[in-house]
C-alpha cells in the first residue's frame, strides 16, 4: 500500500507535523556507535533510516525476524553505503547479548523490540512477558555492562494499563529504572499510536476501503493519541540527547483524536484518490482496549524540557527489591509456560493494571486442561444446573467457581469465569487486585464448590445456597 504523504498525514491528525531534530542534533549522532533492537519493525526501521543518514561510526541492527531484518539491512546498505552496518539475527530474550555489546562498545542502545499488538498480546501472556519484560531486562543489563545508554521505547498504554501489553511495558519501565545509578541513566520514551505502522488502525481502514468492505471502528467516541512515524523517531532520538538522568519523556501530540473522526478523514482522503466510500462498522472495544488513552499516571509530574513539544517526568523511586522479586517470579512462570501465574505477577507488580475479563479463557484453556477435563466429564454434562450436582457437571464452556480438575498440575489452573480469580492446583480460588469476592463453600454442599457473589452470576440452584449465610462470605473469601 502506498505510504501517505506529509500533507495527508497532517489532514488525518488534524495538526501540523513538525521535525523535532535540528542539524546540530544530527551531527551529534555522527561518529557514534548505535545499536537498534527490533530494527525490522515500524519504529526500529525508521530509526535505522534516520540514524544511518547521520553517518554513525557503526550501526548494528538486531531483530529475531529474519525477513524483516534482511529487508532493512538491504535498504540501509543502499541508502548509506558508507556506514559500517551489521545485522544480527537474535531474540533479545533468549540470546546472550553481553558479549555482543562488549565487542561493539555501543554509545547508545535504542530498544524497540517488543510485542505491541494489544489484542494478540492479550492471548499470549507468557510470550509478551518474555519479550517485553525479560528481554528488556537482558538488553538493559548488557548495555549497562558495556557502558552504553539505553533508550526504552514504551507506550501510552503503560499508563493505567488495561492490557497485557501495557502492563508488560510498565513493568519493563520499572525494571529498567530500578537499575539506574550514577553510571547508568536509562531513558524511557512514551508515545501514542503511530499512523501507518504495521497493523495500525489507519492501515486497516485503508485496506477495508480499497476492498469495498465496511470500515471497522471499535468505538467512534473512543479517543487516541496519534503521531507520525517521523515524529515518534525524532522524539526518541531527541530524548537520548536531552537526557542527563533516568527520566521519562513524551511528545506533546495535541489533543487526543476521536476514532470516528479518523475514520471520516481517511474516507475523505481515499474518496479523493478515486476509491468508493464505504460504511462504518462499529465492532466494539476489543479485550485490553481503553476508551480513553492517557500518557502519564503513576504520580509522574509533567515538566517542560528545552524543546517546547517534549515533556519530561522523573519516575517515582521504584523499590528495587520488589521489582526484582517480580522479575524472578515472572521468569519462573514464563519458563514453566504458566500464563495464569504470569498474569497474577503482572497484576501484583503493576497495581493499577486492570485485567481484561474477556482474555481469561485464553490464558486458562490449555490443552492439558481440556484433556484432563474431558476425561472426567459426566454423561449428564450440558444439562441444567440443578439437574446433576456431581463434581464433573461442568462443560468446558461453563466455568464454575471452585471446580476442581482431574489430573491437577499447572494445566489445571483456570479462572472462575466471573472476574479475576485463578484456581490453584488444589482447586482453591486466588483473587487478583480489583476482583470481586467469593463466598465460602457451604458445609452441606455435596461437592467442592465456591459460590460466586458477582451480580452477573447465572442463577444458583437452591440446593447450593440453602445453608449459605452472610457470615460465611468474609471468612471464606480468598
Question: How would you describe this protein?
Answer:
The structure is a single chain. The chain has 478 residues and is α/β, with parallel strands linked by helices. It contains 17 helices and 17 strands. It has a nine-stranded mixed sheet with strand order 3-2-1-4-5-6-11-15-14, sandwiched between helices. The chain has a two-stranded parallel ribbon with strand order 7-10. The longest helix has 22 residues, at 125-146. Residues 359-478 have low confidence and may be disordered.
Brief rundown of the structure:
37% of the residues lie in helices and 13% in strands.
Summary tags:
478 residues, alpha/beta, nine-stranded mixed sheet, two-stranded parallel ribbon, 37% helix
In terms of structural class, how would the helical and strand content be classed?
A: alpha/beta
- Regarding quaternary structure, what we see is single chain
Estimate the mean pLDDT confidence: 75
The main sheet comes to: 9 strands, mixed
Strand portion, in percent? 5-15%
What is Rg?
Answer: 25 Å
Unreliable spans are 359-478
Separation, N- and C-terminal Cα atoms: 52 Å
- In total, the number of strands is 17
Strand order of the largest sheet: 3-2-1-4-5-6-11-15-14
Amino acid at each position: 500500500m502506498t505510504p501517505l504523504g506529509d500533507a495527508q498525514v497532517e489532514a488525518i491528525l488534524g495538526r501540523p507535523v513538525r521535525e523535532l531534530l535540528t542539524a546540530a542534533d544530527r551531527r551529534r549522532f555522527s561518529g557514534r556507535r548505535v545499536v537498534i533492537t527490533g530494527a525490522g519493525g515500524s519504529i526500529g526501521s525508521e530509526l535505522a533510516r534516520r540514524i544511518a543518514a547521520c553517518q554513525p561510526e557503526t550501526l548494528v541492527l538486531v531483530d529475531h525476524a529474519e525477513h524483516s531484518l534482511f529487508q532493512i539491512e538491504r535498504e540501509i546498505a543502499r541508502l548509506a553505503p558508507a556506514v559500517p552496518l551489521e545485522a544480527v539475527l537474535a531474540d533479545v530474550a533468549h540470546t546472550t547479548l553481553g558479549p555482543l555489546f562488549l565487542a561493539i562498545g555501543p554509545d547508545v542502545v535504542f530498544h524497540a523490540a517488543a510485542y505491541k499488538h494489544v489484542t494478540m498480546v492479550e492471548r499470549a501472556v507468557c510470550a509478551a512477558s518474555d519479550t517485553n519484560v525479560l528481554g528488556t531486562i537482558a538488553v538493559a543489563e548488557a548495555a549497562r555492562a558495556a557502558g552504553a545508554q539505553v533508550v526504552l521505547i514504551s507506550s501510552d498504554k503503560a499508563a493505567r494499563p488495561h492490557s497485557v501489553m501495557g502492563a508488560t511495558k510498565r513493568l519493563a519501565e520499572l525494571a529498567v529504572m530500578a537499575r539506574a545509578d550514577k553510571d547508568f541513566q536509562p531513558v524511557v520514551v512514551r508515545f501514542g499510536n503511530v499512523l501507518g505502522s504495521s497493523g495500525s488502525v489507519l492501515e486497516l481502514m485503508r485496506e477495508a476501503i480499497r476492498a469495498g468492505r465496511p470500515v471497522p471502528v471499535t468505538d467512534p467516541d473512543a479517543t487516541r493519541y496519534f503521531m507520525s512515524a517521523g515524529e515518534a523517531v525524532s522524539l526518541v532520538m531527541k530524548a537520548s540527547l536531552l537526557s542527563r538522568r533516568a527520566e521519562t519523556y513524551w511528545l506533546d501530540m495535541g489533543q487526543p483524536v476521536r476514532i470516528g473522526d479518523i475514520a471520516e478523514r481517511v474516507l475523505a482522503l481515499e474518496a479523493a484518490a478515486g476509491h468508493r466510500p464505504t460504511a462504518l462498522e462499529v465492532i466494539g472495544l476489543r479485550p485490553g482496549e481503553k476508551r480513553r488513552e492517557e500518557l502519564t499516571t503513576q504520580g509522574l509530574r509533567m515538566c517542560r524540557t528545552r524543546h517546547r513539544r517534549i515533556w519530561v517526568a522523573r519516575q517515582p523511586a521504584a523499590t528495587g527489591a520488589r521489582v526484582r522479586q517480580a522479575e524472578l517470579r515472572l521468569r519462573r512462570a514464563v519458563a514453566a509456560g504458566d500464563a495464569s501465574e504470569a498474569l497474577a505477577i503482572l497484576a501484583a507488580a503493576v497495581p493499577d493494571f486492570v485485567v481484561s475479563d474477556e482474555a481469561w479463557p485464553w490464558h486458562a484453556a490449555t490443552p492439558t486442561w481440556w484433556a484432563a477435563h474431558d476425561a472426567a466429564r459426566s454423561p449428564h454434562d450440558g444439562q441444567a444446573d440443578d439437574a446433576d450436582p456431581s463434581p464433573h457437571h461442568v462443560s468446558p464452556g461453563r466455568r464454575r467457581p471452585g471446580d476442581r480438575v482431574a489430573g491437577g498440575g499447572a494445566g489445571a489452573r483456570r479462572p472462575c469465569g466471573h472476574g479475576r480469580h485463578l484456581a490453584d492446583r488444589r482447586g482453591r480460588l486466588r483473587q487478583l487486585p480489583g476482583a470481586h469476592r467469593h463466598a465460602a463453600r457451604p458445609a452441606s454442599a455435596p461437592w467442592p464448590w465456591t459460590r460466586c457473589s458477582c451480580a452477573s452470576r447465572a442463577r444458583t440452584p437452591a440446593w447450593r445456597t440453602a445453608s449459605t449465610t452472610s457470615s460465611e462470605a468474609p471468612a471464606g473469601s480468598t
